[in-house]
Structure to design on (455 residues):
C-alpha cells in the first residue's frame, strides 16, 4: 500500500464518525450524543499535525453543517478553531497523560460549543440552556477510548 | 519529524483563511436567497450517507419483526382490524358531513375545502440539536415533494419541508427556533402566531395583548393564513398562561400535539391550490364579500 492510499483511512474514520452523528437515537439519549467527528478529527490532528489540520477540519465542519442543517459555515468555523488550537499545541498535548488530555479536550470542546452557541444566538436568537453542554462531558468520557482505539488503528495501518 | 514536503502557509494564516471562508459561507447562507438552491444540491449529495446511517436501526427493526411470536402478530392484527372498523365507521359519517359542508359553503358562496394528495414518508435521520430541530425524510423530488410542503403525524402538525433532493428531503419542525406558524385558538377563533423556541415540547404565542381571552387547555389549530399549512389541523394545547403586568405582552406557551421527539413516519400533504381555479363561479362572490369587509 502506498502512503497516500493508507492516508485515505483517516478520512474513512471521520466519515464513519459523521454517520454516528446523524444516526437516529431515542430522544432520551439524544442530548448526550458526543461530538464524534470532532473527537476523531482531534485525534488525527494530534497525531499528524502536518497533514491533517485546519483545511481538513474546515471541510468536515462544512459537511457537519450540511448534514445537521445548521447555517452553513457555523460548524466549519468551530472545527477550524478547534483544529488550530490542537495543531498549534500538539507537542504539549502529546506529553500529557490521557486523563489530562481528556480534561483539556473538555475545555476545548466547551469552547467549541460556546462558539457555536454565540454564532447561533447572533444569527437566529437561540437562548442558552445548560443541557447544551452535555456533549462536552460525554466527549470527555469517550476521549481515552477513542484515543487508544485510533492509536492502535494508526499503528496497525502504519499511517504517519 | 522530518519535513519531507513543503508545509505550506503558516497555521495562523490558514486559520485566518478558514475563518474568512466560514464568515463568507454564513453570510451567503443567512443573508441571501441563493442558499435554497445550493442546499437542495447539498442535501442530494449527502442523501446516501443518511441511508447508510439508518441501516443499523432498519436492521434492528427488521430483526425484531422477524422474531415476533405468532401469537403476538395475531393479537396485533386483531387490534388493527378493530381500529380499522371503528375508523371506517367514523369515516362514513365524515363523508356525509363533508358533502353537507360543501353544499352549505356553496350556498354561502365560500370555496369548498378539499383534500389534497397525501404521501407517507419514513424518517431517515432526526437531528434535534438544541439549536436546530430538523428531520430528514426518505422521499424527495422523485416523489413530487416540494419546498414549503406541510408535514403531519397522526396527532398534529409537525413542520414543513425546507430543502429537497431527488430521494431525500429535509424538514424543519415547528419547534425550531427559526420557525413560526399561524394558528387560531379554536374556542375563540382568535388568530395567533406560534413560534418555536428550540425545545421539543414548547411553542410560544407571541404579541398577545393582556386582555386576550385565552386559558390553559385551549386547543390551537392551524388558521391557513400563512399560506403554508392547510386550515384546521391541530397544533397544540395551551399549556401555560402567565399574566405579568410588567411584560408588554401576555406570556402564553403551547405544547405541540405531535410527538416531536419520537417521529418515525410522517404524512406529507399537498396543499390544494387547484380548487379555487377549477370552480371560478364559487370563488367570485367570496372575493366580493371580502372586499366589502375591508371597507
Amino acid at each position: 500500500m502506498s502512503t497516500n492510499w493508507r492516508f485515505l483511512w483517516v478520512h474513512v474514520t471521520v466519515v464513519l464518525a459523521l454517520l454516528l452523528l446523524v444516526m437516529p437515537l431515542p430522544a432520551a439519549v439524544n442530548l448526550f450524543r458526543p461530538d464524534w467527528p470532532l473527537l476523531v478529527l482531534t485525534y488525527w490532528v494530534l497525531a499528524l499535525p502536518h497533514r491533517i489540520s485546519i483545511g481538513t477540519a474546515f471541510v468536515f465542519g462544512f459537511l457537519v453543517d450540511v448534514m445537521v442543517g445548521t447555517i452553513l459555515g457555523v460548524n466549519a468555523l468551530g472545527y477550524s478553531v478547534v483544529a488550530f488550537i490542537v495543531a498549534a499545541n500538539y507537542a504539549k498535548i502529546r506529553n500529557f497523560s490521557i486523563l489530562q488530555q481528556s480534561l483539556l479536550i473538555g475545555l476545548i470542546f466547551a469552547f467549541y460549543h460556546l462558539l457555536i452557541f454565540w454564532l447561533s444566538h447572533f444569527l437566529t436568537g437561540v437562548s442558552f440552556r445548560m443541557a447544551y453542554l452535555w456533549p462536552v462531558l460525554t466527549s470527555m468520557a469517550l476521549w481515552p477510548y477513542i484515543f487508544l482505539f485510533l492509536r492502535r488503528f494508526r499503528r496497525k495501518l502504519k499511517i504517519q | 519529524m522530518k519535513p519531507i514536503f513543503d508545509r505550506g502557509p503558516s497555521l495562523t494564516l490558514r486559520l485566518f483563511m478558514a475563518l474568512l471562508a466560514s464568515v463568507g459561507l454564513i453570510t451567503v447562507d443567512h443573508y441571501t436567497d441563493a442558499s435554497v438552491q445550493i442546499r437542495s444540491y447539498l442535501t442530494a449529495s449527502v442523501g446516501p450517507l443518511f441511508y447508510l446511517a439508518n441501516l443499523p436501526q432498519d436492521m434492528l427493526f427488521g430483526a425484531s419483526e422477524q422474531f415476533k411470536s405468532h401469537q403476538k402478530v395475531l393479537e396485533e392484527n386483531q387490534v388493527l382490524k378493530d381500529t380499522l372498523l371503528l375508523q371506517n365507521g367514523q369515516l362514513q359519517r365524515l363523508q356525509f358531513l363533508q358533502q353537507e359542508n360543501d353544499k352549505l359553503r356553496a350556498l354561502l358562496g365560500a370555496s369548498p375545502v378539499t383534500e389534497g394528495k397525501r404521501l407517507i414518508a419514513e424518517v431517515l435521520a432526526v437531528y434535534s440539536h438544541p439549536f436546530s430541530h430538523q428531520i430528514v425524510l426518505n422521499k424527495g423530488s422523485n416523489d413530487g415533494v416540494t419546498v414549503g410542503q406541510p408535514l403531519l403525524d397522526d396527532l398534529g402538525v409537525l413542520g414543513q419541508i425546507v430543502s429537497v433532493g431527488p430521494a431525500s428531503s429535509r424538514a424543519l419542525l415547528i419547534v425550531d427556533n427559526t420557525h413560526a406558524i399561524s394558528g387560531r385558538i379554536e374556542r375563540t377563533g382568535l388568530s395567533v402566531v406560534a413560534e418555536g423556541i428550540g425545545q421539543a415540547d414548547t411553542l410560544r404565542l407571541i404579541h398577545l395583548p393582556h386582555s386576550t381571552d385565552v386559558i390553559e387547555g385551549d386547543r390551537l389549530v392551524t388558521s391557513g393564513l400563512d399560506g403554508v399549512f392547510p386550515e384546521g389541523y391541530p397544533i397544540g394545547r395551551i399549556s401555560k398562561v402567565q399574566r405579568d403586568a410588567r411584560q408588554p405582552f401576555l406570556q402564553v406557551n403551547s405544547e405541540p400535539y405531535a410527538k416531536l421527539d419520537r417521529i418515525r413516519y410522517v404524512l406529507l400533504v399537498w396543499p390544494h391550490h387547484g380548487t379555487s381555479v377549477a370552480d371560478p363561479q364559487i370563488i367570485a362572490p367570496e372575493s366580493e364579500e371580502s372586499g366589502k369587509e375591508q371597507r
Q: What stands out?
A: Residues 35-67+115-271 of chain B form a domain with the Thrombin, subunit H fold (CATH 2.40.10.340). Residues 181 and 266 of chain B are 18 Å apart (CA to CA).
